[in-house]
Design brief:
- The protein is α+β, with helices and mostly antiparallel strands and 284 residues long.
- It has two domains: 146 residues, Vaccinia Virus protein VP39 (Rossmann fold); 107 residues, 2-Layer Sandwich (HIT family, subunit A).
- The protein is 18% helix and 25% strand.
- The protein is built from four helices and 13 strands.
- The strands form three sheets. A six-stranded mixed beta sheet has the order 2-1-3-4-8-7.
- Helix 3 crosses helix 4.
- The protein is elongated and about 70 Å long.
- The termini are far apart.
Length: 284
């Protein structure tokens, strides 16, 4: 059966003359710091009210305020957006918010907890099919009641994630994190072999990519696509090598799965043969 399109998610935006509950909560807790972005701001009610209170805040919404932000932010808020999106769309929002967040910054996601039935239903005003789903995130929960939950997010390399000594579970703060989702993150390699050399790393601590659940494998490759877009924009490479080392016989040194995205540039190869077929020196 053909999957129904989720083309009316913007219709769930609500006009208000007062701050939303999560915005008021963050204001009361003094958590709205520095330069702020409201990602998926709908009609922009919170943006308007917080500006009146003196906050430096920008609103972005792909339907109502489509001008994409061109800088990074100390605080990002994303309220009741994920509940109206399909899984892949949710992951893209997480990756975009992570990318727009300054190192050391905080993002806050509000999700609904009062949804009784997932799926499409006819909007009571617009009479269009709108989608709602239950969302749970692996981030710090800072507020929870029967109607909503509020999560706090910080970049993966700005917190302690594990008590083990794996540097992929606890990556260095000094490395630049490109983007992150619920189950994976992308970070510049600490010992790059080309300009822009990036690792996509699953958060689950397994040595082999093949040990990952299929859903987490898929999330890694979705992130590979995102990283490729970011690297093309920033470095303008002429090509890419994408691959992984699995087990020591294949050159794996850190026993935590990862995928290498290596930008290639004209003139960086020696001889006619290069790329994946050049991986075993004796077979060159």
């Amino acid at each position: 059966m053909k999957q129904q399109k989720n083309q009316f998610s913007h219709l769930t935006a609500i006009e208000r003359s007062y701050l939303s509950f999560p915005a008021q909560f963050l204001l009361n807790q003094n958590l709205l710091q520095g330069k702020i972005l409201d990602f998926g701001c709908g009609f922009g009610n919170d943006v308007k009210i917080l500006r009146q209170k003196g906050f430096d805040i920008t609103g972005y919404d792909p339907y109502y305020f489509p001008e994409y932000p061109d800088n990074k932010f100390d605080t990002i808020i994303c309220f009741y957006v994920l509940n109206v999106l399909f899984t892949e769309e949710q992951t893209n929002v997480l990756m975009e918010v992570s990318r727009l967040l300054k190192p050391g910054g905080k993002a806050y996601y509000a999700v609904r907890r009062d949804i009784k039935r997932e799926g499409f239903r006819e909007h009571y005003v617009h009479k269009k099919p709108t989608y709602q789903c239950i969302v749970k995130l692996p981030f710090l929960s800072v507020c929870l009641d029967e109607n909503r939950e509020l999560y706090e997010y910080a970049h993966y390399n700005h917190q302690r994630n594990s008590s083990n000594y794996c540097i992929f579970c606890n990556p260095y703060r000094t490395l630049r994190l490109l983007t992150e989702s619920a189950t994976a993150y992308a970070i510049f390699d600490g010992y790059p072999i080309s300009k822009g050399h990036t690792l996509v790393i699953p958060k689950r601590h397994v040595s082999s990519y093949f040990e990952l659940p299929f859903k987490e494998q898929s999330a890694c490759w979705l992130m590979v696509n995102k990283v490729q877009e970011l690297l093309k924009t920033e470095f303008e490479p002429d090509g890419f090598n994408v691959g992984m080392n699995i087990n020591r016989a294949a050159g794996q040194n850190i026993m935590h799965a990862s995928i290498h995205i290596i930008p290639r540039y004209k003139g960086d190869t020696v001889g006619a043969k290069s790329g994946i077929r050049n991986v075993i020196p004796k077979k060159q």
